[in-house]
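pasting for ref. prot 1 ->
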Amino acid sequence: MPNIKPISDLRNYNNVLRSCKVGEPVFLTKNGRGRYALLDMQDYEKQQAVIKLLSKLSEAEDAVKTGEEWKSLNDLKNALEV
C-alpha cells in the first residue's frame, strides 16, 4: 500500500523521513492531489542507472535499425591488426 501523506506533515519532517524506506517511497499531496515523491537514495540511484541503461539500449537499437556503427569485415580486420 502506498505511503501517502499531506505536505503539511513536513512540519515534522523527521517522521516523514523515517517512513521513507528502501523500496517504499513517500508520496506527498498538496490540496489533496499528488505533488511530490520522496525516495530513498538507493532507490533513486537504481532508477537513474535503469534510465541510463535503457537510453543506451535504445541508442544501440536505433544503430542496428539504421545500419550505422556497423563495420565491414575488412575494416574489422584492419582494426584488429593494429
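and prot 2 ->
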Amino acid sequence: MTQMSFLLDHKYCIGCQTCVTACQMRHRTPDDVQLRKATSFEQQMKGPWITTACNHCEDPACVSVCPTGATVKREDGIVVHDPEVCIGCQSCIKACPYEHPVYLEEENRIIRCDMCAARLDAGDVPACVEACPVKVLTVDTLENNEAAGGVAEAPGFTVEATKPTTRFIPIK
C-alpha cells in the first residue's frame, strides 16, 4: 500500500500563513477554524516555523474509533471523512493525539484535512502545497519523502503511537 505524506523543509518556512489561508479557503472554514496550523517553536514567534495538518497516520486512531465509518483510510494512506455519514459524536477528536479533526458545533459536524484528496486524484497538489510561496511544503509518498531526507521528528512536533506520516527536513 502506498502511503502519501506531507514533507516540510521548515528551516526555510517563513511563517507567512499562506498554507493556512489556502486550506481555510479550500474547505470554506470559518475564520477561527484552522485545519492547517503554522506556529513558531521559538519564543516571540521569530521562527523557525512548523506547519502541520492531519498527519494521515499509518495507524490513525480516528479511524478505529469512528462508530459509523465516516472516517476511513484510503488505499493511498489518506484519511478522509464523509460528513453525510458523520453523527458528530467527536470520538475522532478525542482519539487523535494531534487534536486534528475539528468539531463545528453550530453545524454538528466534523471537518478535517483530507490532503485535498480530490485534487490529488485529479493530478493536482493540495491547496496548502500549491499556495506555499517558498515551496517548502510538498506532498509525495512516504517512501519518497524519507528518501529526500525527511524524518519523523522535529522541534515542536512529537511522534505518537499512531505513526504520523508527516516528514520534516532536519534543521542542521
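The radius of gyration is 15 Å.
Strands lie at 4-8, 37-40, 49-52, 71-73, 79-81, 102-104, 109-111, 137-141, 167-168.
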